[in-house]
Amino acid sequence: MKSNLKPYARSDTCRPNDRFELMTFFDLNPRLEGDSLPVLDLALSSIRLMKDANYPWLLVVPRKPDLVEIIDLDENDQLQLMREIAMVSRVLREVTECEKLNVGALGNQVSQLHVHIVARFRDDAAWPGPIWGVVPPRSYENDADQHLIDRLRSSFSALAELEN
User: Which residues on adjacent β-strands are paired with residue 57?
Assistant: First the structure.
């Protein structure tokens, strides 16, 4: 997906207040794009909600070309990615009140570097095992996906205000 937005200046901190955008300016893998919805962009990464109501599930996708592994990022961007993963994890935990977060960069089906952050609950379909292939994806109903995105954005904004 492309837009006319100017790229963000690289930052060594993870203060989201001046870096939120809703459109990306890099080539997102078509499968990632089809399986997820945009939430917002941070300094390095696009944050997306997976279209699976079984699990509140976010992707962190660095907006740089030709990345497959975390080690393909330069050292500063590796550190920025870790800060953004931590921030997204805090927001997802706060919004969902989950019992556990699963974080992983698998890339076996889609090689473009992306990190999964999945909110887990003791009563979810796959607990305590991994979520992959346990149940088919379930669509969000009655605009629940947009409601969740709105809550996530509000939480990111509140976190930005606290950090200022």
Answer: 118
